[in-house]
C-alpha cells in the first residue's frame, strides 16, 4: 500500500460520487467542511455565555446563547444529513466499483485467468474490499474537515495557555496504532480468502441439486459440512485474533491520551486559582477537551479508512495492470474476421499447457482443416480433444505456435468478433433455467425473439418432440429452481444442442460430445444432418468439428484426427485410416463388433 494508491482511490471514488449525483456530492462536501468550524463555534459560544453571565452582561449573554444554540443545532442537523446522504452515495459508489471490476475482468480475452487461483484470489479480495474502497474518497474529505476542526480547537486552547497544545499531540500515538489495527484486519481478511472460497464451494456442493444427489448417495454430506465449518472457524479465528491484536495497542495509546487530558484540566484549574484564566476559559477547556477527543478519534478513523482503501486499491491496481497486460485495452481489431472461409483453419505447431501447470496438454499439433470440411476428433480420455476445441474458439490461446484462420493468426482478430462466428455445444453444457424459447434463443442473443429460428434450431437438434410435451410449449419455464419443468439429462443436452444451432451463419460449428447422453443411432442421425449442412454451406466455407467416442459417427467426417497424449497420432479420411491398420482401425473394428 502506498500513499499514491490511497490518493488515487480517494480521487477515483470522489469522481464516482460526482457521477452518481453531482448536486448531492457538492451538498455533502459543503456540510462536511462546515462541521470543522461548528465544533469550535459551539465551544467558543459556551465560554462567552459563562463570561457574560459572570460579568452580568445580558446582551452579550443572549448573543452568546443564540450563537451557541445555532452552532450546535447546525452541527447536529448537518451531521445527520451528511451522514445519511454520504451512506447513500457510498452505496452507489460501491455498486459502480463492483460494475467496474466485473467489466474489467470480462474484457480480458480468453478465460485463462478464470482458471488461475491467484487471479480468483485477487478478485475475491477486491470484491470483499469494495466497501472499504467506496469509503476512501469521503473518508479523505472527512479527515481534512476534522483536521481543520482540530486546528481551530487548538487555536482556542493556545489562547488560554500554549502548553494546552500538547493535548493535540497526545493523540498522535493513536494514529499509527489505529492504522496498524486496520492493516492487521485487512491482512487477515486477505489471508482468509482461499479457505473461505473452499468453504463456499463445499457448502454450494450441498445446496446445488446436481452435486447434492451424489453427496446424498455417498453419505458424505456431514463430513463435507464438518470440513466447511472447520475452514470457516479457522478464518473467523484468524480475523478475531487480528482484531484483538489491533485493539490491544490502541487501548494503551488512549490511556496515555486520558492522562494528558487530566493534566490539561489540572493546569486550567491552577490558572483559574491564580486568576490567570476566567471561569469561561475553564468551561471552554472542558468543552473543547470532549470535542477534541471526538475530533481526534474521528480524524484517526478517517485516516485509517483512507489507508485501508489504499490497501484494497493495490488489488484494484493489480487487476487493471493484469487486464492491460493481457489485452483488455488493445485496439479491438487488427484484422477483420472474414465473412466466409476460403482456405480454412490451420494449427501450426500448437502447444498448450493450462495456467499454473507445465505439463503440455497439446504438444506440437500440426493440422489443417480445409474450408467447408467436417473434422472428427477421437482419442482416449484426457487426450486433449476438448482442449483443442477450446483453443479453436479462442477461450484459451496456444502457449506457443499459432492457429491461422485463412492464413491470419487468431490472435490478430478481435476475440469477441471471432466468438460471434463460432457456435456449438460443449461437453459441460449449461442448463439454462429460463423459458424454453430463451434457453434456446440465448445461443444467438440478437435473435432471441425469433420464434421461427428457435423452432428450426429445436427441430435440427431433434428437440421439437420435447417441447411438444411441455405444458406451455416454448413458454414453459425449465428447471425446478423456479418451479418449472425438469428435463432428463439427455433432454437438457438436446436443448443445449438447439442453442448451439441458433447461429445459422456460423463459420465454425464445434460439437464436443454434444450427444453423449443420446443413443448411438440418434447421435449418428444428428451428425449425418450436420455433415450434410456443412456440405450445403459450401459458399461460406463453414467448418464442423465433432468430438465423439463413437466411431460409427466419427467415420462420416471428411477428415479424422486421432489424438494421443496431446499429439496427432494419426490423421486422414476414414478409409485411409482403416487402410493404415493403426489404432483407429483397431478401435473402429472393436466398436463395430460390439454393436453388431
Ligand atoms: N482446466 C484445466 N486445468 C488444468 N488441466 C486441465 C484442465 N482441463 C483439462 N486439463 C487436463 O488436460 C488434459 C486433456 O484434457 P481434455 O479435457 O482436453 O481431454 P479430452 O481428450 O477431451 O478428454 P475426455 O475424452 O475425457 O473428454 C487432461 O489430462 C486434463 O487433466
Using brief descriptors, characterize the structure shown.
596 residues, 6-stranded mixed β-sheet, 21 helices, ABC transporter transmembrane region fold, 10 strands, binds adenosine-5'-triphosphate, 4-stranded antiparallel β-sheet, alpha/beta
- Total strands: the figure is 10
The distinct bound ligands, ions and cofactors come out as: adenosine-5'-triphosphate
Spatial sequence of strands, sheet with the most strands: 6-7-8-3-9-10
Low-confidence stretches: none
Strand share of the residues?
Answer: 5-15%
Question: Averaged pLDDT, please?
Answer: 86
Q: How much helix, percentage-wise, in residues?
A: 55-70%
What is the gyration radius calculated from CA atoms? 35 Å
First CA to last CA: what distance?
Answer: 70 Å
CATH homologous superfamily (4th level) name of the domain at 3-200 and 245-325: ABC transporter type 1, transmembrane domain
By CATH, the topology of the domain at 3-200 and 245-325 is ABC transporter transmembrane region fold
The number of helical segments is: 21
**CATH architectural group of the domain at 3-200 and 245-325:** Up-down Bundle
Note the overall shape. Answer: elongated
Biggest β-sheet description: 6 strands, mixed
- Structural class by sheet pairing and helices: alpha/beta
CATH class division of the domain at 3-200 and 245-325: Mainly Alpha
Amino acid at each position: 500500500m502506498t500513499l499514491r494508491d490511497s490518493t488515487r482511490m480517494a480521487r477515483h471514488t470522489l469522481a464516482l460520487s460526482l457521477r452518481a449525483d453531482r448536486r448531492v456530492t457538492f451538498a455533502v462536501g459543503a456540510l462536511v467542511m462546515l462541521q470543522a468550524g461548528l465544533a469550535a463555534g459551539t465551544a467558543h459560544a459556551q465560554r462567552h455565555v459563562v463570561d457574560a453571565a459572570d460579568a452580568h452582561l445580558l446582551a452579550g449573554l443572549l448573543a452568546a446563547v443564540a450563537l451557541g444554540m445555532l452552532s450546535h443545532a447546525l452541527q447536529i442537523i448537518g451531521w445527520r444529513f451528511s451522514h445519511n446522504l454520504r451512506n447513500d452515495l457510498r452505496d452507489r459508489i460501491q455498486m459502480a466499483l463492483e460494475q467496474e471490476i466485473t467489466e474489467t475482468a470480462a474484457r480480458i480475452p480468453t478465460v485463462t485467468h478464470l482458471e488461475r487461483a491467484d487471479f480468483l484470489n485477487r478478485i475475491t479480495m477486491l470484491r470483499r474490499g469494495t466497501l472499504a474502497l467506496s469509503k476512501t474518497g469521503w473518508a479523505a474529505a472527512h479527515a481534512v474537515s476534522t483536521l481543520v476542526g482540530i486546528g481551530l480547537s487548538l487555536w482556542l486552547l493556545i489562547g488560554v495557555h500554549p502548553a494546552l497544545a500538547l493535548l493535540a499531540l497526545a493523540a498522535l500515538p493513536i494514529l499509527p496504532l489505529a492504522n496498524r489495527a486496520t492493516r492487521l484486519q485487512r491482512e487477515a481478511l486477505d489471508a482468509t480468502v482461499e479457505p473461505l472460497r473452499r468453504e463456499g464451494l463445499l457448502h454450494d456442493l450441498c445446496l446445488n441439486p446436481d452435486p447434492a444427489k451424489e453427496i446424498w448417495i455417498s453419505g458424505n454430506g456431514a463430513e463435507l459440512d464438518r470440513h466447511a465449518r472447520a475452514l470457516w472457524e479457522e478464518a473467523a479465528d484468524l480475523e478475531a485474533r487480528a482484531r484483538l491484536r489491533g485493539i490491544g495497542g490502541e487501548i494503551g495509546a488512549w490511556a496515555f491520551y486520558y492522562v494528558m487530558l487530566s493534566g490539561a484540566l489540572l493546569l486550567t484549574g491552577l490558572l483559574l486559582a491564580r486568576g490567570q484564566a476566567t471561569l469561561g476559559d475553564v468551561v471552554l477547556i472542558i468543552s473543547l477537551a470532549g470535542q477534541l477527543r471526538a475530533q481526534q478519534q474521528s480524524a484517526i478513523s478517517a485516516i485509517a479508512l483512507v489507508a485501508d482503501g489504499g490497501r484494497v486499491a493495490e488489488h484494484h491496481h493489480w487487476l487493471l495492470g493484469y487486464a492491460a497486460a493481457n489485452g483488455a485495452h488493445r485496439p479491438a481489431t487488427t484484422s477483420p474476421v472474414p465473412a466466409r472461409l476460403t482456405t480454412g483453419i490451420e494449427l501450426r505447431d500448437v502447444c498448450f499447457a493450462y495456467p499454473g501447470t507445465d505439463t503440455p496438454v497439446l504438444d506440437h499439433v500440426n493440422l489443417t482443416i480445409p474450408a467447408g470440411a467436417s473434422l472428427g476428433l477421437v482419442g482416449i480420455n484426457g487426450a486433449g480433444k476438448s482442449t483443442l476445441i477450446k483453443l479453436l474458439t479462442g477461450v484459451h490461446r496456444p502457449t506457443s505456435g499459432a492457429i491461422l484462420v485463412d492464413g491470419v493468426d487468431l490472435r490478430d482478430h478481435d476475440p469477441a468478433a471471432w466468438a460471434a462466428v463460432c457456435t456449438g455445444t460443449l461437453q459441460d453444457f449449461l442448463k439454462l433455467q429460463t423459458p424454453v424459447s430463451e434457453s434456446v434463443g440465448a445461443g444467438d442473443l440478437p435473435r432471441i425473439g425469433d420464434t421461427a429460428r428457435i423452432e428450426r434450431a429445436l427441430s435440427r437438434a431433434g428437440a421439437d418432440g420435447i417441447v411438444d410435451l411441455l405444458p406451455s410449449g416454448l413458454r414453459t419455464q425449465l428447471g425446478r429452481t423456479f418451479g418449472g419443468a425438469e428435463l432428463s439429462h439427455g433432454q437438457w443436452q438436446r436443448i443445449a444442442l438447439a442453442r448451439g444451432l441458433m447461429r445459422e451463419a456460423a463459420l465454425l460449428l464445434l460439437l464436443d460430445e454434444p450427444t453423449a447422453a443420446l443413443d448411438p443411432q440418434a447421435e449418428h442421425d444428428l451428425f449425418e444432418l450436420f455433415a450434410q449442412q456443412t456440405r450445403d454451406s459450401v459458399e461460406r466455407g463453414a467448418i464442423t468439428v465433432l468430438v465423439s467416442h463413437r466411431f460409427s459417427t466419427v467415420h462420416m467426417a471428411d477428415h479424422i484426427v486421432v489424438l494421443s497424449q496431446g499429439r496427432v497420432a494419426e490423421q486422414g479420411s476414414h478409409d485411409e485410416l482403416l487402410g493404415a491398420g493403426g489404432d483407429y482401425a483397431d478401435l473402429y473394428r472393436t466398436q463395430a463388433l460390439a454393436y453388431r
